Amino acid sequence: MHKRRRVMWISSIAPMVLALIATAVIQAQVKTKVSKEELAIQELVDLLAEYPDDARVHHRLGILLSWEDRREEALEHFEKAIDLDPYAEQYSNTYRMICIPWEEYLRCIAFFESMIEKHPDVPQLNLAMSLAYVDKMPWAKMGMVSQGKLSNQSMAQLTKVIEADSSNWSAWYARAMNHLHWPRAMKHAQMSIADFEMALKLQNDLGLSTPRRYFEYTYIGLGDALVKDYRHDEAREVWRQGVELFPRSAQLRKRLSFDDNVALEEWMKTARALEKPIETDLSIVWSP
Amino acid sequence: MTMLSAAPSSASAQEATERAFTDVTEQVGITHTHHKPVLDEKLGHIMPWMACIGAASAACDYDNDGDEDLYVTNSKLGHPGYLYRNNGDFTFTDVGEEAGVARVNEDHGVSMGCVWGDYDNDGYRDLYIIKWGCNRLFHNDGDGTFTDVTVTSGTGDCGNANGVIWIDYDRDSDLDIYIGNYFPYVDLWNLENVRMMHDHYEAAQNGGPNVLYRNNGDGTFTNVAFELNIADSGWTLDVGCGDIDTAGTIGIYTANDFGRDRIYVYKGEQGFVDVSEEAIGIDTRKGMNAEFGDYNNDGILDIIVANITTDEYLKEGNCLYEGLGDGTFVDVGVETGIWHGGWSWGIKFVDYDNDGDLDIYNANGFVSAGEESWWFDLAMFATDINGDPEDANTWPPMENKSCSGYEPNRLFRNDGFDGFTEIAAEAGVDCRLDGRGITVADFDNDGDLDMFLTNQNAKPVMYRNNVGGRHNWLQLDLTGTRSNRDAIGAFIRLYAGDLFQVRQISAGNGYCNQEMRRVHFGLADKTAVDSVHIRWPGGTMQVIQSPGVNKIVSVVEPAGG
User: Fold this and answer.
1) Chain A closest-CA separation from residue B314 CA (Å)
2) Would you list the DSSP string of B241-270?
3) pLDDT, tens digit, for every residue of B157-185?
4) What is the H or E stretch that residue B476 is in?
5) Least CB-CB distance to B313: which of A141, A153, A183?
6) CB under 8 Å to B230, separation ≥6 — which residues?
7) Which phi and psi angles does A248 have, rounded to 5°?
8) How many whole angstroms separate alpha carbon B137 and alpha carbon B556?
9) pTM of structure
10) Which residue of A has its CA nearest to B380?
11) Nearest CA of chain A to the CA of B294: how many Å?
C-alpha cells in the first residue's frame, strides 16, 4: 500500500490497536534486521497459532498485511476478526476503509450480508452494511440511478439499526448524511433535518462538559440540510451554535462567512456536490 | 484537450451568429406534422414515454438533379412518410405517394428512422426505413419511383429499431447495413405481457440484438451480427461509425440507453472486437447519439454522444470524446462547455458559420405536456430498491405530466481555444419543441449548411442558413468506382494555408438523421485551398491540387488506384 494511502485511513484505527502494533513492530525489529513489518507479522502469526480465536490479533494482523499490500490475506484476517467479534465497530470500520482504495466493494457488501445472516441480532453489522453500500456509490462503474438505489439500500439498513436501538448516534448521523446527499428535488431535505436533529439531541443528552470532536459534524450537516430546505437563517443559527463549541472549526466558519444566500447556495453546490463521496469513516466517534 | 484551430475574432464570430438561421419551413412547402405512435393500450399509463421517438429525416439527391431532397418519417399506423423532392429553388414537393415510399406505416409497425445508400452501385440511392416492426428496403429505380425489395433482399428484420447506418465494414465495395434495435423482439401493438422494458437503468442488456446485414453483392443480404459478434443487445438508440485512430481503423459506436455504449472494430475472420473499455471506459449513461467529427482540427475524429442532463435530477452530461489517435478517447464535454444539452437526442457537428471549425447543434426535450413534472415520480421509481423496471405495470403513470419538456435546443459555437459558446437564441435555432433528429445539408446550394430539425409529434423546422458569402467554402461530391459508389467511409484531408481539416463520409451517423453526402468545408477567409487528399474506402489515395473555393467539385475515384 502507498504510504499516503496508509496515512489516509490510519486514523480509523483505534489508538490502542496502534499501540499494540507499534509494540509488535519494535519487538520484532530488536530481534533481527529482517523487515520490521515482516517480523511483526510473524509475531502475530505465531500468536494466532496459540490463540486462533482472538479477534484483536486477527484485526492487527490484517492491518499489517494491508500495509504490505498482501490483499487477500489481509481481508481474510479482517473478516475473521469481524466474525469472531461482530459487535466491534472498529473492526468493521477498518475493513470497510481498506476495501475502498482496493475497490473491494462487492466483496465487502457480500461479506456483511453473510455476517448479518449468521449474526442476525447484531446492529453493528447492519450499520457496517449500510455504510458499505454508501462506500460503493462513487465507484466508477456506478451510474447515478444505481447510486440512488445504494443510498436507499443503506437507509433501509440504518432504519433497522434505529428501530433496534434509537440511541445509536452513528445510525442517525449516517442516515442524515444519506438524505443530505440527494438532490434537492428529491425532497429528502426534511428527513435529513429530522435525523440530524435526533443526532444532535443524542449528543446533547450525553451532558459532556467537553464536547467530543465529532459533534462538530452534526452542526455542519444540520445547517447544510436546512439550506437544502431553503431555511438559510436557521442554518446560520445552527452553525453559530456549532462555532460556540468549536471556535476553530474552519468548516463552520466558512459557511458563516456567506451573508448572501445566493453565494451560499452556489458554494454549497460544490461542497455538497453529488459527485463527492459521502464520508463514512466512523472512527470519528471513538477517536479523541 | 487540444484546440488546434485559430479562434475567430469576437467581431466575426458575433457577425456570423446574429440571425444566422431563419425558419423557412412553411415557405419551402414543408407542411406536415409528425404523428407519434400509439401502442398497445397495456402501456397506456406510460404512453408518452413509449411514444417519444420516431421523428427522423434523411437528406439525399435521390434523383441526381444536383440538389438535396429529403425523406421524413411518420410514426403512427396509417400515416404516410414523406419524400420531399427539392424543386431546385429551395422549395419542396412531397412526391412520396407517386414514388411509392409513402405507405410504409400501413402494417408491420411504424417508421423510426431512414437512411439512403446505393447498395447496388447503380448510381441511384436506395432507401432503407427502420421500424418498430418490420424494416423496409426500397430500390431506387432511377425514374422517380421505388420498388419495395424487402422480401427479395432479405432485409426485413422485425425487431424494434431506432438506429441505422450504411457502412462498408468489410471493404468489399458494396454497402452493408447496421441496425440498432431497442426493445426486445416483441409486437408493441399486441403485447402478450408488459414485462418487456429494460431490466436495469445503467447496465441493461435485455434489449433487441442489433443486426448487421452483409451485402451479398447480388441484391440480397444476410444477417451476420451474431456470427461476427456485433449483435449488441443493449437498448441501442443510435449507431455511428468512423475512424477511431490515425491508422484508419473503422469503429462502430453503439449509443445504448440504460447501459454501456460500445465501440466495435472489425478484425476480419475474428469478426468484430469490443474495444469499448480501452477506448472510452465504462459508460453507464443514456447514450442517444453517435456522431463523428474532428472538432479541434487535429486530424483525428472525435465522437459526440448525447446523454440526459437536468439541473436537479440527473446530471449525465453530453460526452465529447476527443480522439487521441491511438484508438482511445478522453471525454472533454465539461471542459469544452457542451456538457449540458438538456435531455439530448440528435447532436450534429456543423460548421454553420464556415469559419473552418465544427460547431455543434443539439436537439433536446423529452415530453412536453402539462405544467406538472414527471421527473420526481420517475426518480423515486428508478431508485426504489424493490423496483422492477422490466415490468411496465410497476411504472408510475405519466398522466399529462411533462418530463424535461419545452427545452430550448442548443447551438454550441466553436470558439477554438476558448471551447464552445451556447448561442442558439441569437442564432434563431432555440426551438422548444421535442427535438429529435437534425439533418444538415446545403439545400439551396449556396455554400452554407442549412438544418432540418424533426420534432416528435410536432411540425419539423427547416432552418435556412443566412451566413452565405461571409466566409469561403468548398464542397466535394465523391463517386466511387473501385470503392462503394457512395464513397461512404472516404476520409478527406484539406490543406489551406494554416487551416487543416478532415472529414469522413458517413451515412446515418447521429440520431434520427442523415446528413448530405457531399462533403462540406468552411474555409473562413482562405481564398485558396492548397490541396485535398482523399483516402477512398478501398484504400486508393488521391490528391487534388488547388481545387478552388466557393464551388462544388465532383471527384471520381481513379480507376487505376
Assistant:
1) 7
2) EEE-BTT--EEEEEEEETS--EEEEE-GGG
3) 999 999 999 999 999 999 999 999 999 99
4) strand B472-479
5) A183
6) B178, B210, B212, B252, B264, B271, B272
7) -100, 10
8) 27
9) 0.88
10) A186
11) 27
